[in-house]
Write a structure and sequence with these properties.
Elements (H helix, E strand, L loop, with lengths): L2 E4 L7 H12 L4 E4 L4 E6 L3 H11 L8 E3 L3 H4 L7 H9 L5 E6 L15 E5 L4 H10 L3 E5 L12 H8 L5 E4 L9 E4 L6 E4 L10
Parallel strand pairs: 1-8, 2-8, 4-6, 5-9
Antiparallel strand pairs: 2-3, 3-7, 4-7, 5-6, 9-10
């Protein structure tokens, strides 16, 4: 049965954020809000959590998982990024963009695309997500909370708890965060390739 945490959207309660971070360190899989939609999240090294996300979303091994990072210093540990790409990504973050880049050795192989050795990274513009990432001190392995056969992500914390109570450990709710997915930009080939148009303005990468 998933625990339910009601968090203030502008001034998240430190004690609650600390409790959620502790649960993640103990192997929890959570649903949490971002600046584009709700997401599923666990620690990078949580193999069971990764398998649970795959099961909930029915994902194959070609799916690009995302490392939700607090800031650029953290992001830079997990992807190779040259100066030109750095400037383009820096100008668009924090925000509703996911960038696909070559992964460093810090990224577990199970999280990489099996052929391209790439991973998705992003820095969210969301107070609660940022508070959680700061408390955790490491990226969250994440995937949009989009259930199989459904066209839009779930948007209400109570509905997420009701429908996924048996497969999640916690739901963090700070209100409706919308259904727009991130704009996905693939830089793994050097030049920007827009893979998905979403909440972030894609014009800057065209």
């Amino acid at each position: 049965m998933a625990k339910y945490f009601d968090v203030h959207p502008q001034t998240p309660q430190a004690r609650t954020i600390g409790t959620v971070a502790d649960s993640l360190r103990s192997g929890a899989l959570i649903a949490y809000p971002t600046d584009s939609s709700f997401a599923l999240g666990c620690r990078m090294g949580n193999h069971e959590g990764l398998d649970r996300i795959r099961s909930i979303r029915r994902l194959d091994d070609r799916h690009h998982f995302t490392l939700m990072c607090e800031n650029f210093a953290q992001l830079g540990q997990f992807v190779h990024i040259d100066n030109a790409v750095f400037r383009a990504v820096k100008a668009a973050t924090p925000g509703s963009y996911t960038f696909i880049l070559p992964a460093t050795k810090e990224v577990p192989r199970r999280l990489m695309h099996p052929k391209k050795k790439t991973v998705g990274v992003r820095i969210p513009d969301h107070v609660v997500t940022q508070a959680l990432l700061a408390e955790l001190g490491e990226p969250l392995l994440s995937s949009t909370l989009l259930l199989p056969g459904e066209e839009e992500p779930l948007t209400q914390g109570w509905e997420i708890k009701e429908r996924l109570d048996h497969v999640l450990d916690a739901v963090v709710d700070s209100g409706d965060c919308g259904t727009d997915l991130t704009t996905v930009v693939d830089f793994s080939g050097g030049a920007a390739e827009i893979v998905r148009r979403g909440a972030g303005d894609p014009a800057r990468f065209e």
